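[job 0412] stage=complex_fold ligand=zinc ion status=START
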Amino acid sequence: MMVDQNQVCPVCGSSHVRIEQEDRLIFEPYGGQKAIKLQVCTCMDCGADGDFLNQNDTSILAAQNYLKANAVSQIVNYLNDTGYTSAAMERAFGLPSRTIAKWKRESDSCPSASAVALLRIVRTFPWLISVADAKFDHAIAQRIFITEAIKDLLKYRLTNSEQVSSGVITNSEGTLIYLDYLQDHQESKLGGNCNAQEIECGTWGNGRGML
Ligand SMILES: [Zn+2]
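[job 0412] stage=complex_fold status=DONE, emitting structure tokens
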């Protein structure tokens, strides 16, 4: 705690103002977090309190911009590392060439809000790049979405080079969710060496397992 003799209470004009620091953690999706200190002023004479110095909003904004810049960089690096080149993403989303490099460069000062919004979404669901690549064709988009959901459900990681299809079969005995994939160089985890393998499935409703 400190008393700043130069600080004047905006309510009563007293210079008897106490300034305390308050820790605040700023969080940004995919950008990490940053601890900042906010200043809380209290007038010792009239009891008014708040941000008399009008510095807190600036501190919060600076931290948010710093974390957003970090997020832009981290997300683009992650997508590049997982096989999505910036050029491929720009093609898929119809962005001018080198837009993503520009985002990374410009994010040092103030990242574009729309760039951050798009990158957050794509980082969460990278398969949206494939949806965009298919010109947002509804049937293809649904197929990609369901396939990715089933891959997640089955917790099975497939590389980009593998051809994957999926589906759901329902009859009176239950429901079968399946994921077919092609492997060129290795055998299926569940045995056999056919190209197309059903890797896992389950049933709901009648308690019987199906394989
Ligand atoms: Zn006062």
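The chain has six helices and seven strands.
[job 0412] exit 0
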